[in-house]
Every structure is written in structure tokens, then in C-alpha cells.
Amino acid sequence: MPAVPAAASASLPAAAPRPALSGLVDQFGRVASDMRLSLTDKCNLRCHYCMPEDGLEWLKKSKLLTAAEIVRLVGLGVERLGVRELRLTGGEPLVRADLVDIIAALRRNHPSLPISLTTNGVGLAGKAQALAEAGLTRLNVSMDTLHHDAFLQLTRRPFLDQVLAGIEAADAAGLRPLKVNAVLMRGVNDGHAAGLLGWCLDRGYELRFIEQMPLDADHGWTRDGMITAAEIRGLLGGTFELAPDPRSREGAPAERFEVRHPGSPALLGTVGIIASVTEPFCADCRRTRITAEGKVMSCLFSRTEVDLLALLRAGTSPDDDDAVAARWQDAMWAKPKAHGMGHPGLGDADFVQPDRSMSAIGG
Ligand code: SAM
Ligand code: SF4
């Protein structure tokens, strides 16, 4: 894992001292209630926009949050800090052998907490039923294309059929509403956007396109290479009619659109577009992220990380819990106002790509 500099993004002001407020509040008045927790940095795919071909140097097991530490952290988040929903991610969370036990323990402690999982779907077919029985609420499965050759090109692995079987098993296990995440890459799968949407609509799945962010380990992202949200709307517009979804966005990263056949009043379903780069939603961000080794990242693009693991391992008394909660609050208090791309007054020149890839943060 590359060393991560401790300095915050240069263009952003230093945080004022944190007042004694409850919850995960930042200096700009945002309150984080959506916890994203990475279970591992390991993955069995090598998506171009995320991982290098040879993978990364994986964290040693001793550096990963244990199941007990995960349960304790989520407990602190929910019981003291106002966390209202949890998403488990990675790396690929399905590669973690104790995943079902972790979900079962979280469910026992938090019977009504929405717990979702983002997965690439490889190996999901054999685990979907157990995940549902353990208490998982729902799933996002990442699948960028239905074409085998493009899937292989994007992920560098020939596992599309496994992903399709995983989606089918998740649906059969009742893990709904099922969402499908897709990243488009120019010249690879951008021509498949409308076909993928049609496939999802036919099955009642909600497709969400994510603009490619500069979080690839190879640092190959370019603004011109990225397919923008406006382009995505155009790509879909040849086949479907999109109208803004009148329901409130409520801090969700995806802007939702109702989908119809041109000229038809019949609603086919909705599609989401997450325009993190060109239409950023930082002002309404409600997320707090914890990496697989227990570091708080207040933003995906943050270059500042705050370690909770050492404090978690220092002891389990109420005083130790107080210290962990306070450090988590400090980390969130210093959350930057914006990530530096696509905001008025903040151009690409103000943006410095984090050293961590998406897989090492937890998307
Ligand atoms: N391995 C799991 C998966 O792929 O679903 C979970 C982790 S992955 C980092 C979470 C999400 O981040 C996936 O939907 C993936 O497509 C997305 N992602 C990864 N790198 C990205 C990037 N550079 N820009 C936008 N989305 C990215
Ligand atoms: Fe693995 Fe997910 Fe990154 Fe693809 S996007 S390499 S599946 S962590």
C-alpha cells in the first residue's frame, strides 16, 4: 500500500476546533449518517478504472479490522454517532470468509439498520441465500456490460457468467431492490449503455451509471477519456426517454430519472446517474468511510486519513469507546467542503488524486 501523506488538500482551509456536538458533524454543517465500511482491500477482478493488472500489495490479515472490531465500530456509529445506514464494500467483500458471520452479528445488534453490500458478484450465486438469511437488506452488483469480450477487457477476468448467476441468485433470495452499478469506458462499453438499461428494466433492477473518477491505481484517468453524465443521458436518449424523478434525492449520490419508451406514457422504471466529477453533490454529502484497516476517510478523495485501529486495539473499556468515537468525530469535523473537481472556483488544478485506489478505500 502506498504511503498516504498526512497533509490535507492544499486549497482547503484548516478546520476550526470542533465544538462539543453529538454525531458526525463537519464544519460546513453536514451530518454524516451513511457509513461505508470496507471489509477488505483484496479483489478477484482487475477493473481498469480501479486496480492495476498485477493487483496491489494486499494488507496483512493482522492489519485488517477483525469481525469483532467491525461489530464494535458499527455499534459506536449507530448507538452514539447517528449512523442510520450501513454499506459494506471493499475490495471485494465476498472474498472475506467471515462475511456471513459479520452480517449476522450486525443484524443481531441492530435489527432495523439497513445493511447493504456492494459486490462484483463473483461467487455470489453460492452465497446469496446465506447473506439474505444472515440479515443483509439488499445488494448492489457491479456489472458494466452484458458482453463477454467487453467484460473481459474491463475486468481482465472471464467471469461474466458468474456475475449473471449471482444476480439471479440474489433476486431469488429476495435481496431487493437489486441495484446494478456500471462504469462506462470510452470505446469499450459506452455503446452497451442502453442495452444494459433495457436488460435491467426488464428484470426490475435499478441501474446506476457512475462517472469514472480519478481513483484508479494506474493513474490513467483523464477528463477527456471519462464518459460524462451528460453523455450518458445522450447515450440512453437514443432508445429511451428520461425525465427527472420527482421523488426527493435525499442526499443520495445518484440523480434518478424515470424511463419510458419515446412517446409512451408507460413507466418502465428508473435509472440513476452518479455524476461525482461533472455535477458533484458534495454540499449534500452524508457519507463517512472507514477503510479495511480502520482509517476514517471523510471523503472518497480525501488525502487525510485518521486511524481508529490503534485506539480500538488499545482497550475495550467505556473510556476507550469514548476515545474512538471522539477521534471519528474529529476526522469528520475536518471533512473538506468539496473534492476540487467540477466546483465553481475549484478547477482540476486544485485536485490532487489520492494515493489510494478505489479498491483500497471502499467505494
Ligand atoms: N468490488 C466491489 C464492486 O466492484 O462492486 C465493491 C468495491 S468497488 C470499489 C465499488 C464500486 O466502485 C463499484 O461499483 C465500482 O464500479 C466502482 N468504482 C471503482 N473504481 C471506480 C472509479 N475509478 N470511478 C467510479 N467508480 C468506480
Ligand atoms: Fe475489484 Fe470492485 Fe475494484 Fe473491480 S471495482 S477491481 S471488482 S474492487
From TrEMBL:
[4Fe-4S] cluster 1 binds at C43, C47, C50. GO terms for biological process: Mo-molybdopterin cofactor biosynthetic process. InterPro entries: Aldolase_TIM, MoaA, MoaA-like, MoaA_NifB_PqqE_Fe-S-bd_CS, MoaA_twitch, MoCo_biosynth_MoaA/MoaC, rSAM, rSAM_sf. Binds 2 [4Fe-4S] clusters. Binds 1 [4Fe-4S] cluster coordinated with 3 cysteines and an exchangeable S-adenosyl-L-methionine and 1 [4Fe-4S] cluster coordinated with 3 cysteines and the GTP-derived substrate. PROSITE patterns: MOAA_NIFB_PQQE (PS01305), RADICAL_SAM (PS51918). The keyword Coiled coil does not apply. Residues 27-253 form the Radical SAM core domain. Its EC number is 4.1.99.22. GTP binds at R36, R87, T118, K179, R287, T288, R289. It catalyses: GTP + AH2 + S-adenosyl-L-methionine = (8S)-3',8-cyclo-7,8-dihydroguanosine 5'-triphosphate + 5'-deoxyadenosine + L-methionine + A + H(+). GO terms for molecular function: 4 iron, 4 sulfur cluster binding; cyclic pyranopterin monophosphate synthase activity; GTP 3',8'-cyclase activity; GTP binding; metal ion binding; S-adenosyl-L-methionine binding. S-adenosyl-L-methionine binds at Y49, G91, S142, M213. It is an enzyme of class 4 (lyase). Pathway: Cofactor biosynthesis; molybdopterin biosynthesis. Gene3D superfamilies: Aldolase class I. [4Fe-4S] cluster 2 binds at C282, C285, C299. Pfam families: Mob_synth_C, Radical_SAM. Its cofactor is [4Fe-4S] cluster. Keywords: 4Fe-4S, GTP-binding, Iron, Iron-sulfur, Lyase, Metal-binding, Molybdenum cofactor biosynthesis, Nucleotide-binding, S-adenosyl-L-methionine. HAMAP family: MoaA_B (MF_01225_B). Monomer and homodimer. Catalyzes the cyclization of GTP to (8S)-3',8-cyclo-7,8-dihydroguanosine 5'-triphosphate. Belongs to the radical SAM superfamily. MoaA family. This is GTP 3',8-cyclase. It comes from Arthrobacter wenxiniae.
